[in-house]
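Aim 2, interim progress: modelling of the pyridoxal-5'-phosphate-bound target.
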Amino acid sequence: MSADHAAVQRTDFDQFMVPNYAPAAFIPVRGEGARVWDQDGRELIDFGGGIAVNCLGHAHPALVKALTEQAQKLWHVSNVFTNEPALRLARKLVEATFAERVFFCNSGAEANEAAFKLARRYAHDVHGAEKFEIISAVNSFHGRTIFTVNVGGQPKYSDGFGPRPEGISHVPYNDLAALEAAISEKTCAVVLEPIQGESGVLPADKAYLEGARRLCDQYGALLIFDEVQTGVGRTGELYAYQYFGVTPDILSSAKGLGGGFPIGAILTTSAIASHFGVGVHGTTYGGNPLGCAVGSAVLDVVNTPQVLAGIKSRHQRFKSELERIGQQYGLFEKVRGAGLLIGAVLAPAWKGRAKDIQQAAEQDGVLVLQAGPDVIRLAPSLVISDAEMTEGLGRFERAAARLAKS
Ligand SMILES: *Cc1c(COP(=O)(O)O)cnc(C)c1O
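Predicted structure of the complex, ligand included:
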């Protein structure tokens, strides 16, 4: 047997890999639509969607086609050249959004890193060296590089890595008075997730985002929306800024943009983009033909009135069924979120037990996510079928019933 096909198992993780994750006991090996199969052939319904990444489920024919066709043609040319898939995807993003310019990278953290660097550079060039402060929200998540993890508002992720980058502060989310008190002439950017994803699927109030927009304009700060989780159809609009009707200056996108292939992007105006002149920023793989070909195919499928409307109707079904299950078994206090980013907030009696519920669901054959210890999060395929929803919700209800009895 060649080394490529040697049998591997979950215990190999503990033996060979850095222990920064605690993966499930089973290993998924194949997926189709909203179903995955593990090494033993067990089938599971996937309501987690690779944490809001697999926006068209697994092995969507349009994405498989885009990737394999591009793989026969051209994988990488470096940024010494441009390439057709990058130009096509950039044009599509510009035509579909507020943006006039696009920068490609490979992940959400890289997109935010680029957004923060661009905001600092813009302020430096336009207003001078004193304007560099970034205001972000408590409990926000923006990635794991040193800069992005410190802009993020969760000390458990940023503590213990030596000196922090300067000029970052955090204000309570959805508290406009706190933002107003913190912002100043030294603020170069305010960064917000339109819905806080990792820390509990907590949507912004529309008035909060409108107020943040007004304060940024008043103080000459850029408004950055981290749409790594909320973007690419997740809310039922292409981007959540359209759902809320508040336009940022810079928007970061990743996760769903590649439907499972790594890609990230920032979207911005040409006036701001001009401050990333030749050589100011870059990345070897950003805008590579493979990722951009897949990203284009994702947008072609997602950004249609039918698919976007389908996300909103699926939201209604998930919300009402989860509310019913929540009431019947005393599990949930409320169900919140938008489109197919849904958070079921645990009732007081279940607080802290999201992991137990996730594990029980898995035993009954349905994958759900947690968002902190008190929220069950769903971020399924945006085109999940009625049958897959019925089956997955049925399995979830069986798990809930079993837990409630125990
Ligand atoms: C996942 C996520 C990130 C980080 O993206 P990576 O691709 O893991 O670097 C940043 N911001 C938000 C809102 C996210 O959900």
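The chain is about 40% helix and 20% strand. The CA atoms of residues 84 and 364 lie 45 Å apart.
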